[in-house]
């Protein structure tokens, strides 16, 4: 399948009189971020995008019957699409990001092509079965000139990369409109939606390099200890199965330790349960959380400051 995609791309590139790629270009997302201020502006803009709105239900309906769209994480969504004569249908999972340190990867080998001025990498995992009901997998990574990225993984009958390309073309057009949180009826609105996990750094007397700032995750150093602060969604039962550690205002903080490393993970639930999902497991509904992983004393210090910043 990789060879077929590569051959098709080469043939297309060599054809004379080829129609121009209709994908939009220009503006903010087509300008390289060079300075730290420019990179931070990209991160803020990506964080403000409603990920589920990039693939609206009405667009997904062109592929089949949309049975579910779920806001998996503040920066991530998934959809299931029923397809006639294919019981398993199509599963798509996508997330928004921006990288100025280690770039995200999708595995090897990859085939690269362009959609306008966006570089797209495909990692194809075709089905090894002759049964047309068996789904193939495709991972795709779209990289904007700015340093922003859109990650998409698809499981679909037959050619999953063809489905991924179709979905990417929809999502990259929607991206240029920068749909704000709440644009999709399938998105959850919580206190961590669009929130900056690195905002706490100013209250801890530390600075965070741009390379360590993410959409929902912040890597920071406090009192000589490296720490990771994450805003996300977690199964409620997993959180409350840990040991109650302390309360910060009205919120209970739970603790788990990774022996023998001595690393502590603190987690606090910071809002009501999310919209029920058909994929909800025995672990219970998803809840918005703040998680800090580092030395125990430093983790508590960061957690208390982070919770104080949330409504």
Architecture overview:
The longest helix is centred in the middle third of the chain and has 17 residues, at 160-176. The protein has helices at residues 2-14, 36-47, 57-60, 160-176, 236-240, 296-309, and strands at residues 65-73, 76-83, 86-98, 111-115, 118-125, 135-143, 148-157, 217-222, 225-235, 243-248, 251-258, 263-269, 286-294. It is of the alpha+beta class. 21% of the residues lie in helices and 35% in strands. The strands form two sheets. It has a seven-stranded antiparallel beta sheet with strand order 1-2-3-7-6-5-4. Strands 8-9-13-12-11-10 form a six-stranded antiparallel beta sheet. The chain has six helices and 13 strands.
């Amino acid at each position: 399948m990789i060879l077929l995609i590569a051959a098709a791309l080469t043939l297309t590139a060599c054809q004379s009189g080829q129609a121009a790629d209709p994908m939009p270009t220009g503006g903010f997302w087509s300008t390289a971020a060079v300075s730290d201020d420019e990179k931070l502006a990209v991160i803020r803009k990506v964080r403000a995008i409603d990920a589920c709105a990039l693939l609206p239900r009405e667009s997904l309906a062109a592929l089949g019957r949309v049975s579910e769209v779920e806001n998996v994480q503040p920066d991530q969504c998934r959809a299931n699409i029923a397809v006639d004569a294919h019981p398993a249908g199509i599963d798509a999972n996508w997330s928004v990001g921006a990288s100025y340190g280690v770039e995200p990867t999708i595995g090897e080998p990859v085939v690269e092509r362009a959609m306008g001025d966006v570089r797209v990498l495909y990692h194809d995992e075709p089905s090894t079965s002759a049964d047309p009901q068996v789904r193939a997998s495709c991972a795709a990574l779209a990289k904007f000139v700015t340093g922003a990225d859109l990650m998409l993984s698809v499981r679909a009958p037959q050619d999953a990369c063809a489905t991924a390309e179709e979905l990417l073309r929809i999502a990259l057009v929607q991206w240029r409109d920068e749909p704000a949180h709440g644009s999709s009826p399938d998105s959850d609105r919580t206190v961590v939606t669009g929130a900056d996990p690195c905002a706490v750094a100013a209250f801890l007397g530390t600075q965070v390099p741009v390379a360590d700032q993410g959409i929902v995750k912040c890597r920071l150093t406090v009192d000589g200890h490296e720490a990771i602060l994450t805003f996300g969604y977690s199964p409620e039962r997993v959180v409350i199965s840990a040991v109650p550690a302390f309360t910060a205002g009205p919120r209970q903080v739970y603790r788990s330790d990774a022996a023998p490393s001595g690393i502590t993970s603190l987690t606090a639930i910071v809002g009501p349960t999310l919209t029920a999902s058909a994929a909800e497991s025995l672990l219970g509904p998803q809840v918005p959380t703040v998680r800090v992983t580092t030395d125990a004393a430093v983790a508590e210090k960061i957690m208390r400051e982070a919770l104080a910043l949330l409504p």
